[in-house]
């Protein structure tokens, strides 16, 4: 009799643990499909992109049920009035953004040129590499854009080589609003050229090049303007894409700026200003 009671207690304990585990699992899964908006005025859109028609503006604290996920955009239902639509998950979940903007809804891909065994151009002393400063500048720009609420994706975040044909894949996969590649120019001889340039190829990239050309006029180096050139990273991509040359690495004057944290921060700020303008008008 005692043995039977002991066995029964063990069995009931096991059943209790199974029931508790099942409840916790179901509860956890249900919570994963719940979302409460944090900023005020989160756009509810007809489709999963920032240019889709806006159906409503959701107040902070709006409770939503997540119905579908697609490349960072979530199809949701407003639990209060049953409205359905899409929100940018990184906007709805943002803890420091007070009110969404065109930029905060955007997906921006930053491409630090070269990397790994591909050093890129070199400074005149052959000891400093382009790949180092493209990554530094891209990371500073990532910080600036993330602070503004944008979703920012890097093609590389460390010293590795990314095959040229692979670079546009990130922008294509996430249907990016802009892809910006960072480079530093080099002339045939030491100190024979100076300045910054912007390059695009596809027609849909021209407005982005023009917006960045205007905002980058504020940099301390001469702006040599924008031009259409079939560079592989901006040619084989359907998304708006621009390649920036932010100075000549074998110019003493330009390299002093290129190495400077303040120059990188100024470039990042001006890129943000250019993106603000571009997204507002396109």
TrEMBL record:
Assigned keywords, A-Z: Cell wall biogenesis/degradation, Hydrolase
SH3b domain sequence ranges: 32-95
InterPro entries for this protein: MurNAc-LAA_cat (IPR002508), N-acetylmuramoyl_amidase_3 (IPR050695), SH3-like_bac-type (IPR003646), SH3-like_dom_sf (IPR036028)
Protein name: N-acetylmuramoyl-L-alanine amidase
Organism the protein comes from: Fructobacillus apis
């Amino acid at each position: 009799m005692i043995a039977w009671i002991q066995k029964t207690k063990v069995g009931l304990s096991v059943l209790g643990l199974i029931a508790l585990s099942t409840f916790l699992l179901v509860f956890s899964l249900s919570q994963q499909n719940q979302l409460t908006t944090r900023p005020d005025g989160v756009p509810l859109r007809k489709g999963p992109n920032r240019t889709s028609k806006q159906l409503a503006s959701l107040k902070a604290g709006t409770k939503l049920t997540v119905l579908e996920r697609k490349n960072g955009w979530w199809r949701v239902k407003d639990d209060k009035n049953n409205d359905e639509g899409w929100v940018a998950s990184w906007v709805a979940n943002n803890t420091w953004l007070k009110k969404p903007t065109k930029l905060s809804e955007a997906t921006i891909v930053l491409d630090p040129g070269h990397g790994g065994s591909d050093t890129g151009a070199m400074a005149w002393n052959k000891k400093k590499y382009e790949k180092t400063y493209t990554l530094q500048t891209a990371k500073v720009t990532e910080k600036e854009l993330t602070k503004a609420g944008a979703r920012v994706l890097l093609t590389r975040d460390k010293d590795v080589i990314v095959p040229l044909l692979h670079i546009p894949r990130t922008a294509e996969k996430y249907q990016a609003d802009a892809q910006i590649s960072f480079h530093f120019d080099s002339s045939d001889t030491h100190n024979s050229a100076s300045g910054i340039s912007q390059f695009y190829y596809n027609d849909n990239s021209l407005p982005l090049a023009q917006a960045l050309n205007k905002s980058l006029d504020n940099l301390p180096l001469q702006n040599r303007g924008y031009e259409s050139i079939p560079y592989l990273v901006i040619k084989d991509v359907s998304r708006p894409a621009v390649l920036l040359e932010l100075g000549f690495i074998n110019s003493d004057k330009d390299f002093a700026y290129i190495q400077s944290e303040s120059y990188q921060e100024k470039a990042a700020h001006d890129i943000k200003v250019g993106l603000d303008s571009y997204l507002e008008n396109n």
